[in-house]
Amino acid sequence: MIRWNKYIAATKKIDNQDEENTYGKIVILIVSDQSKRNQSKEVFLKHSGFIVKTAESIDIMEHILNIHKIDIAIMDYEFKNKRGIKSIKRAKSRSYNPKLKFIVTSTQDQITIKENAYQNHCDLYLLESTPLSSLIQEIKNLAKLEYRKSERIKCHIAFTVFKEQEVYETVATNISNGGVYLLDIDNKIKPTLGGELSLEFKIPNTEIIIKCIGTIAHCSDKGFGIKFKDISKQDQIELNLFLKK
Asked: I need a surface site. Which of 31, 48, 207, 229 has the fewest CB within 10 A?
């Protein structure tokens, strides 16, 4: 009981943070026992628009990864006398997000250290001297695979959009398990960035109808991207099956 009270205290401020992982909003976990060295990194990443959490022990790291959807974990190579990097494989296997990525940082530019990091299942090795602006780009490049590339496919699926008292018929041109791009060429729907719309669509070649709410993530001249917000687990499974065909 004492042990878990320690975790609860360490993650209290984390649980109070905004958990909405909007389309393109990356959640980062900084894993380090060098709090002063990483303070500027944490502040810079937050000001750059990321959601940032921290962990100062392996147990707290695993606890956070188990209950929160973390996209990128950044770990010092020397964390806990190098016991940290040896825990990466286990942390990934138990993570709430099965697509969790690890960035390992070090002050040492040695081939053997870099190879050891990759052998322990890190996804990217960076020097501590890497400029913070470059770190941000590396994070975006690594996370981009999860937000846009992996399950997103081109399609032509009819969608019904409900906005206030109005009903609109439109078409999706690409879709993923996290969101969809809908056409609005005539600008009839007039979406508002950050606003919500009710959606309904039928998975092609099935009788499965999905109903959910979506949050507007971005807009363009021809349409808008929307992130699924409250899609059920069963509907998520059915959508994933369609995307893998």
From this structure: 207
Whether 217 contacts 226, CB under 8 Å: yes
Q: 136 and 71 in one domain?
A: yes
55-66 pLDDT, tens digit each: 999 999 999 999
- Residue 233: partners with Cβ closer than 8 Å, 6 or more residues away: none
Q: Are residues 136 and 223 in the same domain?
A: no
In angstroms, rounded to a whole number, what is the distance separating the alpha carbons of residues 45 and 188? 37
pTM: 0.53
77 to 16, 53, 62, 118, 130: CA distances (angstroms): 29, 18, 17, 11, 14
Overall number of domains in the chain: 2
Sole residue written with tokens 């056409």: 183
Same domain? 79 vs 197: no
